[in-house]
Amino acid sequence: MTSKHHNLLNYIMLTTLLVLFSTSVEAGYRRYQASLDESNWAFKGNTLQCQLAQEIPYFGQAKFVAVAGHPNMQFQLDVSRNRPLEFSNAKIDIQAPLWRPGIAAKAEGEVEIIPDKTPVSLEHDKAWRLLSELEQGFDPAFRYEDWIDKQDTVVVALSSVRFYQTYRTFVDCVGKLLPFTFKDIETTTLNFDFDSTQFTRTSTERLLNVRRYLEADKTISLVLLAGHTDNQGKQGYNLQLSRKRALEVKKYLMANGISAKRIHLRAYGEGRPIASNANPEGRARNRRVLIRLVK
To answer: Which parts of 96-206 are beta strand (E)?
Structure first.
């Protein structure tokens, strides 16, 4: 090759690189996604909450969260730096990974971006849709204008690499979540038959729920028990009866691993009715032990 041809080739290569560089600068495209080596999914959970998360290098974290109670799967995209300064929108694309060429991206609508450390959040059905796409080996991505200066197009993508096995563990956890929340169980009333310390069927079911929650949530510091009766019989007898009812609840909880140090008991007899004692319905409501959980 002559020196003239060599110089011409160098000039063409340099010009091509400059064009490519200027095009990339003009396009302003940035993509954040874990590489093949970096892609990992982390699970943690119990019967109160299940979480499946992936770190996105130089951006933040993507996570799916489900908590006890009604169905409430949620997807959250957290940023570790450069929070958005105003409200905007991001397009959701379902993309094939690089090793599956020829498959076009699929649009899944838009999501609002809010100025917060968790700018993107998707509720139940849409969160499950992302999980379904990941399970099938696709990479959900969020595409938006850079929220700092609006000069670049930014794509933040989840990676389906090493997703499936951890996902199965996550799904198993979701299936075992308690069907009630702390608010549902924070105050529980157990009713009793006349002159009885035996749990009714309904009271047994409620007490089981209290026990299950106490086993799961170690942040409960106190279990307050308050025993009550109706006004049938002598006051002294009713005071002792209310105490016996509360003691039955305490014994049940202790037999199921709840420390006695966490249980505080008081008896009020007939002194604090919540309904009229003039009729059977009211007296039935007054025969009770009130359980209150304190964090």
So the answer is: 106-113, 120-122, 139-145, 153-157, 187-191
Structure tokens at 103: 């498959």
Q: Quick: pLDDT tens for 63-81.
A: 999 999 977 899 999 999 8
* Burial class, 137, CB count within 10 angstroms (exposed 0-12 / middle 13-18 / buried 19+): middle
pLDDT tens column, 138-193:
999 999 998 777 889 999 999 999 999 999 999 999 999 999 999 999 999 999 99
pTM: 0.80
- Residue range 28-175, CATH number: 2.60.40.2540
Q: Which CATH architecture has domain 182-294?
A: 2-Layer Sandwich (3.30)
**Tokens 């037999």 appear where?**
255
Q: How is the chain split into domains, by residue range?
A: 28-175, 182-294
Instruction: For residues 197 and 79, give the distance between their C-alpha atoms in angstroms, rounded to a whole number.
Output: 55
Query: Does this chain's domain 28-175 share its CATH topology with 182-294?
Result: no
Q: What whole-number distance in Å separates Cα of residue 54 and Cα of residue 58?
A: 13
